[in-house]
Input
Amino acid sequence: MRALNRFFSRTGNFVTRRRSDERLREELEQHVVLQAEENVRGGMSPEEARRQALLKLGSIEVVRERYSEEKSLPLLECLQQDTRFALRQLRKSPGFTAVAVLTLALGIGANTAVFSIVYSALLQPLPYRDASRLMVLNETTPRVGVVSVSYPNFLDWRAQSHTFSQMAALDAVSFNLSGVTEPESISGLAVSPNFLAMMGVQPVIGRDFEAAEENQGTAPVAILSDSLWQRRFAGDAGVLGRAIVLDGRDFTIVGVLPSNFVAPSKTDVLIPIGVWITNNSEEAHDRGDRGDMPVIGRLAPGMTVTQATSEMEGIESRLAKEYPAANDNYGVALQPIRDVFVGQTRPALLVLFGAVIFVLLIACANVANLFLVRGTGRTKEMAVRMALGASTSRIFAQMLTESLVLSVLGGLFGLGVAFAGVRGIGRLIPAGLLPGGAAGLNIPVLLFTAGIVLLAAFVFGITPALHWNRTDVQSELKEGSRSSSAGTAHSRVRGALAIVEAALALVLLVGAGLMMKSLYRLLQVDPGFRTDQVLTMTMSLRPDQYSKVPAVRNFWQQVLQRVRELPGIESAAVATNTPMSGNHGRNDITIEGMAQPRPGNYPHPDGHVVSPGYVQTLGISLLRGRSFTEADKEDAPLVAMINQRLANQFFPNQDPIGKRFMFGHPNTEQQPKWRTIVGVLGDTKLYGLANLSRLEVYVPFRQAPSGQMDLLVKSRVDPAALTSALRSAVYSVDKDQSIASIATMKQLVDNSLATRRMTLVLLGLFSAVALVLGAIGIYGVISYSVAQRTREIGVRMALGAPREGVFRMVIGQGVKLAGTGIAIGIFAALGLARLMSSLLYQVSTADFGTFTFVAVLLLLVAFAASYIPARRAISVEPIVALRYE
Amino acid sequence: MKEKTEVQQGTLALMVLRTLNVLGPLHGYGIAKRIEQISGDLLSVNQGTLYPVLLKLEQEGSIASDWGSSENNRRARFYRLTRAGQKQLRAETENWEKTTTIIARFFEVKREDLA
Output
């Protein structure tokens, strides 16, 4: 309590700057007077009395010192003094300050910007209760990898698992929302009723789903997302109990989700899984039907991921034995829920974070270098201070304070850089990466920046500060000459810093070079389809209005007809599962005459339902046979096309034309529906340029029309200009039909490269900064060394050294520093590049060309950086130089 | 010349508290003089060091101070014990007595007593 009182008083005194020792002076004076009076009474002369009184009081300086130490907080006092002194020093050398602050601002700003992205993608807590306990479960097959879960299997999982306290199934659904304004295509999730409770999310208004809503036949109800609620109902709380028209059916609104709600896929609306079962009864009861239904589970208290994984594997293998027709060969995969959001971007983000820390280190090395240059000029100042009794630790503290002040200034400007940076990077990051929406400068990010500022101050402050310790005070004062013993030690440290910079810059440049080469290689990949002048438009028809096959066929036929009439259109087609759309539909097929494989081992191609004109519109190459025509009608013989890969794999050395296959497995109860292969198409890169080609089959759309198709248009003009004409063409067929998305094929391909492009742009930017800073570092070292050696150079030239020799000596110095840095950097890069191997495409992490190019580039830069000081060196007039003596 | 003992700060503080308790409000010089008198000149304080101790006690809340008028009619700072100071003094006195008792016993003990 007393200690606390004392601390508060001291802090109070410190803050209010009540530090005047007026009171003490007065008290001491009074003390002396009283003592002197007493002494006079004792018989002394007034002068002697005062002298004795003063003697008795002791050293006033010591008293005053102890008094003021007691009064305030000495440590803070020092810090304040040092800070004020540092600011004064920095003001005195504005050039130094500006360069140092700018360099640091760049380093700290870039770090803050990248960290804010890393934070919101990888670290920010997901808006679920105890999100680290939530796992996403999927089934797997050895051939395809992760597929989703069939509903009957989910029910068995949930019943048998003990390692999970709760499980919920999520089926992605999409709806045509109509009845209010313009029709809109929205996406949602059909979820088990315990889903929200398990995630720890509560509706802001209304209720959660109830257990009974898991059953078939339950009444259609919906919980709206906040954005849909705002968009369609202006946030009206009276919306509860009203109906929303989804796919032409009324759903009663029972609740609204909080605004920070996110789901693994875009979600405008939640419906209970019972409604989905009602509408998709067949699918929901088919154990072999794995649509688009991941499962989320919450680990039971005390259970680990390993325990859960082994339990689930056990359950899955029991299910495989019990239902071999549907489950043989299937496994199960668990992943933390965050992985679903971050996915494959994690390595890219980590590489970028590492890179940006390198940039900061280079910036620190540069500033340390600047400090050392300036320090040389201050050697004498320091020596004088030490001679006057300043302790080494006190000088050390003061040097570090100077670094800290500089670093804080750099940090403040760095926040400006970061602000601009976050907005710039925001445009580069792949959509959907950040679960919390946009990245920003929030509290954790600012704390990180503060940490970086401290760290930077320490990193670049420690070298010069430590260096002072070794300064020999005596020799400094004695010699009084311009060449000091510290000089050589200094230049050695500075050389080392320049080498470090070169090494770090090389690593960054190698990273950027490898990314650039990958992206170049990727852009060279032939996707197998045309990306220019093609527009895709995604639509899904309302099942109630288009419940019959003829209606669906009719709708698409009419749309195609209207679109083909538009000016500027070269060709148009409709198709399912078009490249880059992210949609896929895969089916097992049975090829006539093949040996019957195990259930998980049937050929499992991607299937496309396409209209005639698809091959021309996308410019896919027709290798053999023919493509579909209008003659491939509903009542015509069943036909199909296959891709080259399927042809090579299943019809090696044969002509596949005329061979037959059917969808599904042989079934004794049904007459097999064989399809005759009429054409072979080139492979298309369905899921991105870097992905391997897959097996593909095509069937004519009139023989299997689908309610969810993409309209593809190849135009003579810029396809983006056609969007409104295309929209009205669709509305003229059905004014209530929504359009889910419109994009040019080029945009879709670009989006598929977003992560790589972001990595490349940022790595390129960072390595450019590194290169410039490194060049400045080398330039600084060389030009300073030239300035210091002016006299020596003058003597050499006076003694007849040729100019070229001097020139070569100076350049050589710079190149030697860079060379050493490059050698170290190459070793480091060989190790570090392996961390980014997953980001590369057909480029080795030790790519000889990239390494060579980067090394040569750095050498050239070092040459250029040494060139100016070298010119200066040979322009030294021997006479002038010697006159210094 | 008499041997003089250097006083520790903690002890000095206790003496200050005790002096103020016995004599009531006093200025710095008065406190110093009392301490000197009572210790019979055994204790020489570099009298100035008293003032940082007074400040410390004041910041801790054990004593308080006000300007007043001294015997020679000059402005002087008078220190007085606060309620917290009285409590502290009681506690420390008790503590001190306990310590001295124990130490005293150690000095009294003879070899035979322990046998």
Remarks:
- Residues 546-735 of chain A form one domain.
- Confidence is low (pLDDT under 50) at residues 480-485 of chain A.
- The interface with chain B takes residues 2-3, 5-6, 9-10, 23-24, 26-28, 30-31, 33-35, 37-38, 56-60, 62-63, 66-67, 69-71 of chain A (CB under 8 Å).
- DSSP finds 30 helices and 22 strands in chain A.
